[in-house]
Amino acid sequence: MVLLLETDPHRGLSDGEAVQRLERFGPNALPVAARSNLLLRMARQFHHPLIYVLLVAGVVTAGLQEYADSAVIFGVVVLNAVVGFIQESKAESALEGLRSMVRTRAKVVREGREHGVPSEDLVPGDLVMLESGDKVPADLRLVRVTELRVNESALTGESAPAHKDAVVLPEATPVADRRNMVYSGTLVTGGHGAGIAVATGAETELGEIHRLVGAAETLTTPLTAKLAWFSKVLTIAILGLAAVTFAVGLLRQQDAIETFTAAIALAVGAIPEGLPAAVTITLAIGVARMARRRAVIRRLPAVETLGSTTVICTDKTGTLTENQMTVQAIWTPDVMVEVTGTGYAPEGVLQNHDGDNVSLAANAALRWTLVAGVGCNDAAITHDDKRWNVVGDPTEGAMLVVAAKAGVNPERFAAGTPRVAAIPFSSERQYMATLHRDGDDHVVLAKGAVERMLELCSLQMGADGTLRPLDCSAVLCAADLLAARGLRVLATGVRSGVGPGELTEDSLRGSLAFTGLQAMLDPPRPAARSAVAACHAAGIAVKMITGDHVATATAIATNVGLLDADEPRPGDVLVGTDLAELAADEFPDAVDEAKLFARVSPEQKLRLVQALQARGQVVAMTGDGVNDAPALRQASVGVAMGRSGTEVAKDAADMVLTDDDFATIEAAVEEGRAVFDNLTKFITWTLPTNIGEGLVILAAIAFGSALPILPTQILWINMTTAIALGLMLAFEPKEAGIMTRPPRDPDQPLLTRGLVVRILLVSTLLVASAWWLFEWEVNRGASVEVARTAALNLFVVVEAFYLFSCRSLTRSAIRVGVFSNRWIVLGVAAQVIAQLAITYLPAMNDVFDTAPIGVPAWMRIFAVAAVVSLAVATDKMLRRVIPVLRR
Ligand code: ATP
């Protein structure tokens, strides 16, 4: 399709045109391919070895004119598919819901003004602005670029950044060489630019690839893969065993139909068919719970890893603190000024230590400190709904507010001294500088971290405006004093009377006059202290990694309980320069010891993660900038900030915090532990039934006696209990004390030795009691149907009792409380109705070959269930009191 974009390369589309085009071209989103083909998804549910066995069994039983059995088998096949289908859909929609939680926003110019819009609202012809850290929202033909570099690995697999240009290229240029194009889904790693959207949604190159591969979201994690493999191997082994059984039976000249039935019973009973689906649904429920607590999982394996996290490395600004900056003090070489008022409202005054208001006219250094804060600034303060807000960097917002309190007007400054060039702030550079035209001259303004600014200054300004040689130590001393109050300190510098020329980092060095320090408060988040304490109680070390000054960082770290104010240890705090000097062999130990890393550059973060991992730690690491991406990728769980983070960081992360709050990481770890618990509980609950059923059948075959339980009955048990009982464990609330035990060793198998013993104990009790009950009923003269019904009910009742035992793997069922998970109570009620129906309804009796049983039989069944519960309770108690048994 040839499309004339009809766009003004400077003013963009009109709002009306954008609305019309959105209607015409549809939203800029990829179609959800995998969900569309319902039939195919349903058909996939039948692709399972067990289903094949059942289908063969169904056909054979129909051939033998056992129509009731055949109907049951086919019924189970269909029911199983429907349940699998529903579970899979639920899990997938849980994951899909997450995608919409981390919305990408795009910056477009429409009618000459720049707006932030959801990237779905982009239309062909839109003029899109790009800067470092953005995800390219559509396929764009570039019209302007400055040093634009793009990581196109999402499309080409090439991870080295591609340099882009706005040149005109011949029409035949292959896609890979089109330097004047950027493609949807790729990441801007440096520079900035503007481009016009030429393709959106499915029409983009990414849309093309998406269409080719179907891009179905997989629900696999290392654990699910391992379990799926385990069930597959087990299935094959059991099918083999069933085939051998059948063959041996025939050789022994036993009745072919009976032997066939026994082999089928063995297969359906012993194969844990519900396991992979249950694991997936438990993971999906965990993901949904995390999302409710504002932690959005981007890569499913992170759910598992979170539960075994041993170290959390966190940023300071915005994660442990509110990122709500207010300048509280200004220091110039002649005076210390305190500023009143909080937040972004420009209400407050500047006072000297006698409480008198200070006048800017009397102090040139103070005036220039405020002017530098205003001119060298990309933020804006807005007022709406009676609230003052900052658009842009809060550090810069605070500087605008303090200037307004002192009567310095940003618009008037910008009109009189327009900006002509800038060196933007970056975490590596730690300062920002701007060049302004001032009449016939130019003036340079700069602001940044104190140490960096001192490298740029050789002079300092006095109150009368005269310049003197810089007194470095006085500045550093004042900065330390302010930082020790927990304030973030920025220095400012100026140089007037500059010629036009270029603004470069080299030309700045040693050329500025220092004017003063602005010190701002960024209060710790209210929940940070308790979240740090919770992590410590859970055996998780918390380390702060910040670009800020060591004294500011120390004050905040002490405030949130990360550093012990009473007992500081020498190795607790490391500064970026210390790290650079550490020898390779000292590095891991020193990093493992330290709790606070200050003035750290993003590149050093990667080394920190690697060092911690070399010490066997499972590291969760936060990040927000482009340069944090390698560390986020390397970390066991990379955590990006949803609000302040760049798209590049989000793309590299395993989890995104929608509220940027440290407490959310702690919440996610807690949920991660709960997911693991619930998985273990489900497996511990389900395996004894499979083992029990399998062994009962094997024993019957080995002794050549009647089957205590028929294949259709086994199908009944497995289907009904998996749905009504087992699935309810996925909704199990977190256990008390989940955050007071140490992190799980990631290498530890899912089932500890103790749990394997418990599973074997319950399996043995099940086999023995089912066998005993069946024999008892037969010996006292009951019909084989009655004996089988008793055995069937025994399995179900024991499973229901054991379900309550499995709600906690360590605490006794009574302490957990019977009614604390209402899903389980509902499930048990449903199961009771089902059991009464299969035992007493004549129609069900006909279909399942069951028969009504009397009160004494029920009493024996409940006695057995009580014995099993008691045995499990004793096992738990022994493990609680004898530590060696706990492993
Ligand atoms: P973290 O979020 O990791 O705790 P941070 O936000 O404090 O770190 P950076 O944003 O990298 O770290 O800032 C490092 C230093 O750069 C700050 O201590 C400050 O002195 C200075 N700085 C921060 N923002 C600006 C800015 N907009 N302009 C100039 N200098 C800045």
TrEMBL record:
SUPFAM superfamilies: Calcium ATPase, transduction domain A, Calcium ATPase, transmembrane domain M, HAD-like, Metal cation-transporting ATPase, ATP-binding domain N. Residues 1-66 form the Cation-transporting P-type ATPase N-terminal domain. Gene3D superfamilies: Calcium-transporting ATPase, cytoplasmic domain N (3.40.1110.10), Calcium-transporting ATPase, cytoplasmic transduction domain A (2.70.150.10), Calcium-transporting ATPase, transmembrane domain (1.20.1110.10), HAD superfamily/HAD-like (3.40.50.1000). The keyword Hydrolase applies. Keywords: ATP-binding, Cell membrane, Hydrolase, Membrane, Metal-binding, Nucleotide-binding, Translocase, Transmembrane, Transmembrane helix. One of its GO terms (molecular function) is ATP hydrolysis activity. InterPro entries: ATPase_P-typ_cation-transptr_C (IPR006068), ATPase_P-typ_cation-transptr_N (IPR004014), ATPase_P-typ_cyto_dom_N (IPR023299), ATPase_P-typ_P_site (IPR018303), ATPase_P-typ_TM_dom_sf (IPR023298), ATPase_P-typ_transduc_dom_A_sf (IPR008250), ATPase_P-type_domA (IPR059000), Cation_transp_ATPase_P-type (IPR050510). It catalyses: ATP + H2O = ADP + phosphate + H(+). Signal peptide: none annotated. Its main location: membrane. It is found in: Cell membrane. One of its GO terms (biological process) is proton transmembrane transport. The keyword Repeat does not apply. GO terms for cellular component: plasma membrane. The chain crosses the membrane at residues 46-64, 233-251, 263-288, 682-707, 713-731, 751-774, 786-804, 824-843, 855-873. It is a multi-pass membrane protein. Belongs to the cation transport ATPase (P-type) (TC 3.A.3) family. Type IIA subfamily. This is Probable cation-transporting ATPase F. It comes from Mycobacterium basiliense. The gene is ctpF_1.
